[in-house]
Fold this sequence. Notes:
This protein is an alpha/beta fold.
Amino acid sequence: MDPLLLDGVKVLDLSRVLAGPFATQLLGDLGADIVKVEHAERGDDTRHWGPPFVGGESAYFLSTNRNKRSIKADFENADDVAQIKRLAAGADVVIENYRRGVLTRFGLDYPTLKAANPCLVYCSITSFGPGRDQALPGYDFLVQARGGVMGITGAPDGEPMKVGVAVADIVCGLYASNAVLAALYRRSRTGLGSHVEIPLFESQVSWLANRAQDYLLSGGDTVRLGNAHPTIVPYQVFHASDGPVALAVGNNLQFAALCRALGREELAGDARFATNPARVANRTVLVPILAQIFATRRAADWIEDIGAAGVPCGPVNGLAGVFTDPHLATTDLVQTVNHPTAGPVRLLASPILVDGQRPPIRRAPPLHGQHSDEIANRGWG
Length: 381
């Protein structure tokens, strides 16, 4: 069965940097035709975010722009704006992440485009939703800081720490693609278009998840626990004799199995550790005991024995470890595509499987304005 579930859906991408391009890339992975509109001179900002570069393209840009076509446009040029409006009139979806009010100056706002295309799904990714700070700009780093993620990330005695990728932008893009799909589903039933907005800040706060709910119930302020979990023990990194081991004990049966694998069955029967609430209460007693045990053997040996006992356990990989992971080698998540200037380039594909099939990478990330002539002559084609 064809895994391109969105084949025939036309998406006009007026976004740049990460949250918006990530959302459109997700739709493109599933078969949508994505036309990316880039600044006539500099293109998407991320084309210049490097090194590394290959064939004149940055790794950053390559990571979020597969399965797209690119055109150049100057919003101050009436002919370019007219072309964008023609594309919007034939589009199913428009996604944009400009500062609030910018696109209104050029007649590219939702009310204007809706007048020519009443069924249009228009998605705005903004910094802050309606409210006091709606006009402020937003960047992932600042939103991780203001939105609480940085405050709960890092060692207890260290400084607040951002996540190692721009996770606020990435999750905002996931929310955006999800909202677009929901809007398309409603349109399929009612014929109605819609304007959905995904504020970066509110998106970030929403996925504080259990940590947010902990605060809302208890009023307890930020606690940083490094790699430990606030409400599950043991659920953290332990150091074997030659390196770290990630351990995730999710229930009491797994804890008993862990104790058997460690050769310390008596720990599972100790009233201080027999249940998860007890283990959380006695974290400072249990964790040093486990740490001392882990330090006696190699990481690979612990991972083998603990995994064989049915307890979630694994290595702490760097990127080299990820891309040599035995499981990853059996998948087609990494695919090679031919790029116009870089030649064969390995890219990540979609993680989604449709009836067991992964949607292929149909297009390499485009050169700046690569498809301008094609689309000027044929439109959506």
